[in-house]
Design brief:
alpha/beta, putative 2-phosphosulfolactate phosphatase, 6-stranded mixed beta sheet, 10 strands
Length: about 230
């Protein structure tokens, strides 16, 4: 098994084989919580225009939209896991558009299969990859807006690789370091409205979810599903 770590939107465009699109803060952590709280399916989309079009066609679907960290006006939710605490999404269909994570999905055009990844389900992702035994694995750390490295996404990619190779990895120490190197914005008083401190704790609940999120595409629309490992 050849394991490649790639970064940003350009890395997503180069991804081949079984591809893991990683966004720890916060898109694919949020989606794990959505599925954990009963969501039936999620449609990740790249553009706001498509997101609002889908919402107009399906008013009962729940629209999550984020740009530059903040909830997009007209969307019910942004990209914050803490904003959905206690909300029952049983049977709901979700539309999800973000600055980084969903951009990785729509740009991974050469992937043979796509799953999403974050620290909250990294072990499940590694277990899923082992079960599939692909020749090539591409771990794509999406970074900030898909354009700038983010330490948390690279850390998640390195952690998944270590699990696949059976190598020791100082994951707990490295996650603690994120407080001052990658997650600082969650602890600044002036950014709490967009980046609440509670999101940091929720996004670093390592291996909290025993499932992966698989991506498929039908009739031009991306759809994800929860798949237990």
């Amino acid at each position: 098994m050849e394991i490649r770590i790639l970064e940003l939107i350009e890395g997503a465009k180069l991804a081949e084989g079984l591809t893991v699109v990683i966004d720890v803060f916060r898109a694919f952590s949020l989606e794990c919580y959505l599925y954990g709280q009963g969501a039936e399916r999620i449609h990740p989309v790249g553009s706001l225009e498509e997101a609002f079009r889908l919402k107009s066609e399906h008013p009962d679907w729940v629209l999550f939209g984020e740009r530059k960290g903040a909830r997009v006006p007209g969307c019910e939710y942004g990209n914050s896991p803490s904003s959905i605490a206690g909300v029952d999404f049983s049977g709901k269909t979700v539309i999800h558009t973000t600055s980084a994570g969903t951009q990785g999905i729509v740009n991974a055009v050469h992937a043979s299969e796509i799953v999403t990844g974050s620290l909250v389900n990294a072990a499940a992702v590694a277990e899923y990859i082992r079960s599939r035994q692909p020749e090539v694995v591409s771990l794509v750390a999406m970074g900030k807006a898909g354009l700038e490295r983010a330490e948390e996404d690279l850390l998640c990619a390195e952690y998944i690789r270590s699990l696949l190779l059976g190598e020791a990895f100082p994951i707990d120490r490295r996650m603690e370091e994120l407080r001052n190197c990658g997650g600082e914005h969650f602890f600044r008083p002036e950014t709490q409205e967009i980046y609440p401190e509670a999101d940091f704790a929720l996004c670093t609940r390592r291996d909290a979810f025993p499932f992966v999120i698989r991506v498929s595409r039908e009739k031009g629309l991306y759809t994800t599903e929860r798949f237990a490992t």
